[in-house]
Structures are given as C-alpha cells and as structure tokens.
Design a protein that fits this description.
Keywords: Lyase. The chain contains 10 helices and 10 strands. With 325 residues, it is an alpha/beta fold.
C-alpha cells in the first residue's frame, strides 16, 4: 500500500476530530429505557447531559447518572398481595367441616397432575394394611386364650378362598366330624368366630366382643354352646353349623372386607335357626365394630339384647322387623 496515501488519510481524520472538539458538537442522541415495573405506557427517556459528552472527559472515566434519577411520569404501583406459600392450603370453611366429619380422602389437593406426597404415602400405607388383613392369619395364642378350637372350610389356599367364595360357605368333612364330637348339641346360642376377609379384625376386636357377649348371655341366663373358630369362612357357613348343632340362634363374629379407611372392622351376623337354603333376608348384622366405629365392648353387650329379642319373636332379619310392627 502507498505510504503517502495512508499518511494523507490519517491527517484528514485527525483534522476532522479536532474540528469537532472546538465546535462542541454533541452527537449523543437520547436513549430510551423501558420501565419494566409499570405498564407499557409508562416509558421514560434518558438523555446524556451536555456536560457528560466524551469530549469533556478525555483521559478520564465517564460518569453517568444512575437510571433511578430518570424522571418518573407516574407513581409506582403498590406491591401486590402476598400469595400463600407452597405449603399453605386455602380451604373453605364448608369443606373443612366436611373433612372433620369423615375419614374419607376429600379435599386433599394435588401437586400438578399427581396426588401430594403425603396423601400418596398414606394411601399406600392403608392399601398395604388392607392386603395384610386379607392374607394374614390369626395368631394361635389368641385362639388359645379364648379357648377356641379351629376347623376349616372346603378351601385351604387363600387365593382359592378369594376366587371361590362358595368353598368358604361349606365346612369340610373333617370339620363336621370335629364339631359334632366336641360341641354341645341344641344350645340356645352358638357363638362362632371366623377370620373372613380380615384377620386383623379378629386380632384387634374379637376378644373384647366375645368376652362382653358371654357376660351378657350369662346375665340374661341364656344357654350357650361350645364356641369355636372357622378358618377361611364366609357368612353362609353358619348354615352348616345350624344343620349340625341345631341351635336356636347362631352368632358369627367375622372379619369384614377391609377398606382404605379401616382394615380392622368386625361384623356380627345373627340368624334364628339357620339351615341350608335359608335366604339372606333372614339374617341380620351389626357391622363396623372397631375402635373408630362401634366400640367392641359395647357391641358385645348390645348383641345380648338383640339375641333376647330374636328369641322372643322367634325370628330374625326382615321377619323380625315385621313381627315387631
């Protein structure tokens, strides 16, 4: 490249710069800043002052005024109300009253599309308790303490018991022989215990119900047969017991199907002279016997009163209701 041409161009540039310094031309144009704290209409303009031109501060640091000093066209909006924290729940008073009246899972909320962690863990715990109640076994120590001997139905495997309820309604041949040999014939009241679909219900409640019922029958001077325990039984197994022992009233204490609220609920089924072919309308039941429902001791005492009424009218179920009217 021609060195003379370079020198000439450099000279022209320097002369032009010196001319701008002498004339004091301010080439800075206003710079607009968006006020993000307000609406789009609240925009302010900030322009460099004349004494802030680069020409005046050659060789020094250029200082700019902070943006907060820009003129404000409107007052700042008040801060919005504080939103509830993530862990807080805004539940209406009506919903809270409903939640206080039921153990059901209502108003538990969600985290996105999923249940909350605490709710999900409680659900898994209750489900596991229900499974354990169905597949568990009653401890031999409890049966020994209550002096109950054990017999079986026509099913021994738990999976078959769940799939074939009809097998649980019939006693095995061995059970029939054992009951005939060890039990008193033709008692007024025959008490039978069965795990049904909840072994947990038997372990938690049957002792209090059984002892309270025995005391109630004794105070009413009612004859009681030899109690025993049927493993994997269904409600209708009381018909086979009625055929064998010929009692006037059979009381079957059996574990209820577990749910997610309670896996320890016990039921007491009663029937006047049960036999094969009896209809379900002739049975009666007192259910929901557990610590969160009917207290076991109270249920045992009440059963004595119901048995007395059955013997008085010689009927149970719908027939009893009709005769009472």
């Amino acid at each position: 490249m021609n060195p003379e041409l370079i020198e000439h161009v450099t000279k022209l540039v320097m002369e032009k710069m010196q001319g701008q310094q002498h004339t004091g031309v301010n080439t800075a144009s206003p710079v607009k800043f968006w006020d993000h704290t307000s609406g789009n209409e609240n925009k302010t303009a900030y322009s460099r002052k004349q004494d802030e031109s680069p020409a005046k501060h050659q060789g020094e640091l250029i200082k700019f005024n902070p943006y907060s000093e820009a003129p404000q066209e409107s007052e700042a909006k008040p801060p919005s109300e504080k939103r509830p924290s993530r862990g807080e729940e805004s539940v209406s008073q009506e919903l809270q009253e409903l939640k206080d009246k039921t153990p059901a899972r209502i108003g538990v909320g969600r985290a996105g599309v999923r249940p909350k962690t605490d709710t999900w863990l409680k659900f898994r715990f209750d489900h596991a308790a229900a499974v354990d109640a169905v597949y568990g076994d009653v401890k031999e120590s409890l049966l020994s303490r209550l002096e109950l001997f054990k017999v079986n139905t026509q099913v021994e495997d738990k999976e078959v018991y769940i799939r074939r309820p009809d097998y649980g309604r019939k006693l095995s041949e061995e059970a029939k022989r054992t009951i005939s040999d060890r039990c008193k014939q033709a008692p007024t009241v025959q008490i039978v215990v069965s795990d049904g679909l909840s072994s947990s219900a038997i372990e938690e409640n049957v002792e209090d119900v059984f002892l309270s019922l025995k005391q109630s029958l004794t105070s009413l001077d009612l004859d009681m047969g030899t109690p025993f325990y049927i493993e994997k039984g269904r409600v209708a197994v009381m018909d086979d017991v009625g055929e064998l022992l010929k009692p006037k009233v059979v009381v079957l204490l059996i574990g209820e199907r577990p749910g997610l609220v309670s896996a320890e609920s016990l039921s007491a089924y009663l029937c006047y002279k049960p036999r094969k072919g009896i209809i379900e309308a002739d049975r009666m039941v007192i259910s929901n016997i557990h610590k969160g429902g009917i207290p076991p001791v109270e249920a045992g005492a009440y059963l004595g009163t119901v048995i007395q009424k059955i013997l008085k009218y010689e009927a149970s179920g719908v027939s009893l209701v009709k005769k009472e009217e």
